[in-house]
Amino acid sequence: MEMLALPLLLALLHSPVCLSVTVRSSKPKVEVHEHTDAVLSCEFRTEKDQNPRIEWKKKGKGVTFVYFNNKFTGSYAGRAKIDGATLTIHSVTQKDSGEYRCEVTASEDHVNLGEASVTLNVLVPPHVPSCEVPSSVFVGSGLELLCKDKLSVPPATYHWYKDNKALTATADTPYSIDTNKGTLKFKSVSKTDAGMYRCESSNNVGAPKSCVAQQLKVIEYPFKMTILIAGAAGFVILLLFCCICVCVCQRRGCCKKHKKTKSSQSYNHPPPPPTRNLKHYKHTHSFMV
After folding, report:
1. Interatomic CA distance for residues 151 and 99, integer angstroms
2. Could you tell me if residue 45 is inside a domain?
3. d(Cα 28, Cα 194) in Å, to the nearest integer?
4. Helix (H) or strand (E) holding 215
5. Cβ burial, residue 92 (10 Å; 0-12/13-18/19+)
6. Pairwise CA distance, residues 111 & 206, whole Å
């Protein structure tokens, strides 16, 4: 048995093993700051083929080529390089974020295609946010101030300042703040809410950015406008009162007495003689004559 086992073992060691091309990435998720270099790793091993074909593609609404036929395509031409199968993109922007696929085709191997995916996330520091602060508002009005930075990645959080002092919403403050949406809301504005307002956006990528402070004035209603509003309110109340009186009068039958009076007056006049009796009267009168 031992003499038979040894030749069998030697035959197995010297027999060709069916291997296929293998592709992997040592870092399948890559995060880099904007305007820096992104290295998308791709390592492969082939069975026989010493010169396999290497391609890089990017997934989006469709699939576009990054590296094809030994050259870079589109916006990657002139700002990318390849080492083995590892791809390096220089000075990345937010448009470069997405999922990339490394494909290695070894035509001489038993299984001739292998692939690996790498996700690139380009981090963007805060930009100067857009701030919406009205120039003036009437006392007692509701008010919402808006702040938005659409470019920062990850999304920014927001903080509001009045006269260069940070605002913090509590149960006692007349306003509320949404740090994720960037809103500052007042239910009823008072004279003390007037001042210089600005908003600041921040994330963990770069330094916070702030919009230019804007003046908010809180003004009283003009005297003439107050009189006009009061007069209009009084007119509406009077109109409603008249409508109520008419409805009550109709329900109580105030108009029925007036109708009865008219009907009683009409019965005071004697009814005209019937037409038939008048003809009979004429006939009798002519006979007598």
Report:
1. 20
2. yes
3. 52
4. strand 214-219
5. buried
6. 47
Evaluate the CA torsion angle 177, 183, 187, 192 in order and state its sign.
Answer: positive
Q: Which amino acid is at 158?
A: Y
Contact yes or no for 155/144 (Cβ under 8 A): no
Note whether 218 and 191 are within 8 A (CB).
Answer: yes
Same domain, 111 and 161: no
Q: Please give the DSSP secondary-structure letter assigned to residue 153.
A: B
Q: Give tens-digit pLDDT for 157-194.
A: 999 999 999 999 999 999 999 999 999 999 999 999 99
CATH code of 203's domain:
2.60.40.10
Q: Are residues 116 and 30 in the same domain?
A: yes
Task: Locate 53 and state its tokens.
Answer: 């074909």
pLDDT tens by residue, 46-91: 888 888 999 999 998 889 999 999 999 999 999 999 999 999 999 9
Q: Domain of 188?
A: 130-219
Whether 175 is in a domain gets the answer yes
The alpha helices in 15-91, defined as continuous H runs, are none
Whole-model pTM?
0.65
Looking at the domain assignment, is residue 71 inside a domain?
yes
Distances (CA, A) of 86 to 47, 74, 128, 176, 216: 20, 19, 36, 50, 55
